[in-house]
Specification:
Length: 401
């Protein structure tokens, strides 16, 4: 089947139904501008892809306001999720930030699935097509793009927006840059129903995030809204390690036994993150695009979110930037009418703010896996708190990841 372009309105195709693509479609919809989201998965899988996210007042929340979802978001957001604890492998506590009971912080948490549900419920269901994996986008002589999907579907778009994440199929239309391995591999575990099943670990973890750092390894844990603690065991290692380490990811008990070996000299209380974990043992390599990536503007195509500026999760900005990009692009389209003027204006703005976050994320990655990382991270925050004039600009440890 081929869709025909409506001559009254530019045909906008958004590739990818993650937080970025959904936010863009929704803000356009609110302004009466049609678009269509093509998502490769057969149905919404955002719930399975990631844990708790902090949504920042100066980025993600701006986008939610434009999408008409700020109040529904604030009604379910977890302000206590801003708690942050920093330890080293001996269990020594370096930072213990606790969100104030009577104050609403500027970066509350929400689970990725819940965030995407909010967006999806507000989006006209006809605006998203599942099971449509983009395989190719070919430029036509009139400046439009022909889009081809694995299921045989084709479409012709005046503007194709790559919101298709780390390994974007749209990105090669604009730049030769590729996502490169960032030098860090994660193994994801989940401790289900932590408060009831493992009160000792729940008490150690508190209500937000806990980082335990030492010698190129880390335990990064975050309490999710559904009561589970999502745990990333992080290793500074070569790209092939997850394939060659011999850990049987499909045999959780044996995998956990071997993982405990990597944390042998860590405090017992921290090893409980591995001991208490359930049967999900997921290997994940962390990738990034070059810091400060830009491309010369080309009519008919642009990128938002990870497709544009994939960075390691250590600035906690990924989802916030994806949503801010969506808002900036949508509002530029509303303002300029001409989609190419709009994308040029959006890209200029986006390049500036995303390069700052990418640099911060790359710097934080170095720090987290350095020698004496816990001490160095504490010093960084002490310095930061001393020199940040406005409490609104104040970042907390909980913003990392
Ligand atoms: C372990 C980990 C922890 C993280 N923690 C945080 C955090 O705490 N805070 C934070 O802000 N960010 C975090 N991030 C980053 C955050 O998840 C991403 O930045 C964010 O999801 C980007 O949104 P997006 O919409 O650009 O892309 P994605 O969420 O990647 O969505 C892309 C969508 O495109 C679809 N797609 C891909 N290819 C195609 C194709 N060819 N055709 C059609 N559809 C396609 C995918 O199925 C997906 O639905 C973390 C990332 C990781 C890996």
């Amino acid at each position: 089947m081929t869709f025909v372009s409506d001559k009254q309105q530019p045909r906008i195709a958004i590739i990818g139904g993650g937080p970025g693509g959904l936010t863009l479609a929704l803000i356009l919809q609110r302004h009466g501008i049609p678009s269509i989201v093509y998502e490769r998965e057969a149905n919404d899988t955002n719930r399975e892809r990631g844990g708790s996210l902090d949504i920042h007042e100066d980025s993600g929340q701006i986008a939610l306001r434009e999408a008409g979802l700020l109040d529904p978001f604030l009604a379910v957001a977890r302000f206590e999720g801003e708690d942050f604890r920093l330890l080293d492998k001996s269990g020594t506590l370096y930072m213990d930030e606790r969100a104030e009971e009577d104050e609403q912080g500027s970066r509350p948490e929400i689970d990725r699935g819940e965030l995407c549900d909010l967006l999806l419920h507000a989006l006209d269901p006809g605006r998203i097509r599942y099971g449509c994996k983009l395989t190719d986008a070919a430029p036509l002589t009139d400046g439009r793009y022909e889009l081809r999907f694995e299921n045989g579907l084709t479409d012709v778009a005046d503007l194709v927006v790559g919101a298709d994440g780390a390994f974007s199929r749209v990105r090669p239309l604009l730049t030769e840059a590729k996502a490169e391995y960032a030098g860090i591999s994660f193994i994801e575990l989940n401790v289900e129903n932590a408060a009831a099943a493992h009160p000792d670990l729940a008490a150690l973890n508190a209500r937000g995030k806990l980082f335990a750092l030492s010698g190129g390894q880390a335990i990064l844990a975050q309490l999710n809204g559904d009561g589970r603690i999502k745990v990333y065991l992080a290793f500074k290692t070569d790209r092939g390690w997850l394939d060659t380490c011999g850990i049987p990811f499909d045999r959780p008990e044996e995998a956990k036994r071997q993982l405990l070996g990597y944390f042998e000299d860590w405090d017992d209380s921290l090893k409980n993150y591995i001991r208490y974990a359930g049967s999900t043992v997921l290997p994940r390599r962390i990738y990034m695009l070059p810091v400060g990536l830009q491309w010369p503007h080309k009519p008919g195509a642009t990128l938002i979110g990870d497709a544009a500026h994939l960075m390691s999760p250590f600035a906690g900005e990924g989802v916030n930037l994806a949503m801010l990009d969506a808002a900036e692009l949508a509002l530029a389209i509303v303002e300029h009418k001409d989609v190419n003027l709009a994308t040029a204006a959006y890209e200029a703005k986006m390049f500036a703010y995303s390069s700052r976050s990418a640099k911060e994320s790359a710097d934080n990655l170095e720090l987290i896996f350095a020698d004496n990382a816990a001490q160095k991270l504490k010093e960084l925050f002490d310095h930061y708190y001393e020199h940040t004039a406005s409490s609104e600009d104040l970042q907390t440890g909980a913003d990392m990841l």
